Amino acid sequence: MTNLPSRNSSRIRPDVQAMHAYAVQDSSGMVKLDAMENPHRLPLALQQKLGQRLGAVALNRYPGERVNDLRCALAGYAQLPEGFDLMLGNGSDELISLLALACAVPPSAANGYKNASLLAPVPGFVMYAMSAQLQGLAFHGVPLATDFELDERAMLEAIAIHRPAITYLAYPNNPTANLWDDAVLERIILAVGEYAGLVVIDEAYQPFSSKSYIDRLARHRHVLLLRTLSKFGLAGVRLGYLMGRRELMAEIDKVRPPYNVSVLNCECALFALENSEVFAAQALDLRAQRAIIFQALSDLPGVRAYPSEANMILLRVPAADKTFEGMKLRKVLVKNVSTMHPLLSNCLRLTVGTADENRKMLAALKESL
Questions:
Q1: Which of 115, 131, 197, 328 has a CB 3.0–4.6 Å from the CB of 100, allowing a cystine?
Q2: Is the pLDDT confidence value at 20 over 80?
Q3: pLDDT at 201
Q4: Alpha-carbon gap, residue 183 to 163, rounded angstroms
Q5: Phi and psi dihedrals of 84, rounded to 5?
Q6: Beta strand 84-89 with 240-245: parallel, antiparallel or unpaired?
Q7: How many helices and strands in the chain, by DSSP H and E?
Q8: Nearest-angstrom CA–CA distance, 223 and 243
Q9: Pairing mode, if any, of strands 312-316 and 347-351?
Q10: For position 337, what pLDDT does the model report?
């Protein structure tokens, strides 16, 4: 019996066995500023209303028309252009996986296509590369410039060589929190369009950004816009949505599992959209707190804080490991991203929290430098 686990594991793909699972840090008893969550909970009165509403949901039935109600509500909220449609996912992570699945072409296919690949600037969101690996696709990471801007020449060269099925452009980017130059972004999009590839603009942090691509979406038939309600304030609900031309979305939707979004997800999201002014006020508060933190960080000797368009701030410190552990000892949990990519050497990523959480974070940081 002692050999049973190894015999069983031999049935798991070798590349999966070699992977590292997505790590979630233990945050028990901590000021949790490591995952870009909205720190604000619903006001008590809304908690009670939502509880009553969820209690009336028909949990004995599969999700039905309520899903379409949510799709319509999100289309209105996002101001989706005419002729476009959207698809729901269990968080944007699922949608990223489904996109890879929809575009995967095996090398043995007899239809003249090469095996598909994915491309994105790095450092960036880890799920882009992970989704490629799990579908057996190549992933091409193009390093950012030293100022965390897109390296236009390198991006265009990589696109010309690899002709990726999907090019991801996070807007703002994670973990650098910056937006891309509009002219550079447009030239990259046009280059992908020349060979009928897809571009996915990932706007996970749109509630905290000064710009969105939604007003430019109708210019291109090959651009998809990805958003999530996690940063909006519903990280626990797990709901993302993908927007694009109706005919393109109809093809991608074929790989979506039936009933992938629960009735509880739907009802929570609909409730939140009906009370969107509450979440808009929370986002406004977090943007104000972001400015306060950025100024405080900029005044610390030996610390470099990078401008942010998201609900996080990237900073470089003299010794990231020492500072991270020191903050953890002081019960403040942030994200140590220093080993994610050479460009992130000695970098930490801080989520913007409440005013009280941010004061505790700054105090812990000062004591840990």
A1: 131
A2: no
A3: 98
A4: 21
A5: -110, 160
A6: antiparallel
A7: 13, 13
A8: 9
A9: antiparallel
A10: 98
Quick one: which H or E segment has residue 121? strand 117-122
Separation CA 283–CA 278 (nearest Å): 9
Strands 332-333 and 312-316, bridge-based pairing? unpaired
Which candidate, 120, 181, 171, 170, places its Cα nearest to that of 147? Answer: 181
The mean pLDDT of 194-214, rounded to a whole number, is 96
Rounded-to-integer distance, Cα 369 and Cα 365, Å: 6
- Establish whether the linkage from the previous residue to 123 is cis, with ω within 30° of 0: yes
pLDDT at 4: 47
Q: Whole-number mean pLDDT of the chain?
A: 93
Say if residue 249 is exposed, middle or buried (CB neighbours under 10 Å; 0-12, 13-18, 19+): middle
> In whole angstroms, what is the distance from residue 31 CA to residue 329 CA?
11
Convert the pLDDT of each residue in 311-359 to its tens digit: 999 999 999 999 999 999 999 999 999 999 999 999 999 999 999 999 9
User: What pairs with residue 306 in β-bridges?
Assistant: none
Predicted confidence band of residue 110 (pLDDT cuts 50, 70, 90): very low
Question: Pairing mode, if any, of strands 332-333 and 335-336?
Answer: unpaired
Nearest to 107 by CA among 137, 141, 129, 139: 137
Q: Are 276 and 73 in contact (CB under 8 A)?
A: no
pTM over 0.90: yes
- At the second CATH level, the architecture of 59-275 is 3-Layer(aba) Sandwich (3.40)
Domain boundaries, the chain: 4-44+277-368, 59-275
For the chain, the 3-state helix, strand and coil shares in percent, each to the nearest 5, are 45, 15, 40
pLDDT for residue 91 is more than 50: yes
Burial class of residue 43 (count of CB atoms within 10 Å of its CB; 0-12, 13-18, 19+):
exposed
Q: How far apart are CA 153 and CA 188, in angstroms?
A: 10
Residue pair 35/310 in contact (Cβ under 8 Å)? The answer is no
Query: Which tokens in the block code for residue 10?
Result: 């031999």
The label of the residue with tokens 């000695």 reads: 346
Q: Quick one: which H or E segment has residue 347?
A: strand 347-351
CATH topology for 4-44+277-368 is: Aspartate Aminotransferase, domain 1 (3.90.1150)
Residue 12 is classified by DSSP as S
